[in-house]
């Protein structure tokens, strides 16, 4: 018999170290309101750099925020994911992810999610100066070619001028990422192993 928790689809929310991370509870609350079981994974920089409100995220999701790998022999801490949202996604994350670098728990999860064919939605946040680097655009195209729904471009999300990111935090389009996750087709039984 399935538990009520497993009757709900599981959404992993991967939060990177960027200004909107302080409001990630908006995404978590909206997702739980739509019936998702949410597991929050913060990059180490987001968790240790004061970018997230850990108590608010844990209260909204009902689960601890994770940022490190399980220890050998430790029981899995989160149920397998049905979909993944990476928001806010930083330039560092997009470039490492596109290169297949899985040297942190958060990156390992998103690299694996793509590998098993889960619906993955990425919502960036960086300046136009960082956006102008050729690696950034190339990485976006690599992720898109791998099936990641990157919400980047006109009508979705566009970079801000250097030094103006703070003015864009209040209007960061969390809802777009959640809408995409809700519309994503079922993963066909492939689910990330969880952690």
UniProtKB/TrEMBL annotation:
InterPro entries linked to this entry: Flavin_trans-like (IPR036551), Flavoprotein (IPR003382)
Gene3D superfamilies, per the entry: Flavin prenyltransferase-like
TM regions (residue ranges): none
Flavoprotein domain location: 11-143
Name of the protein in its database record: Flavoprotein
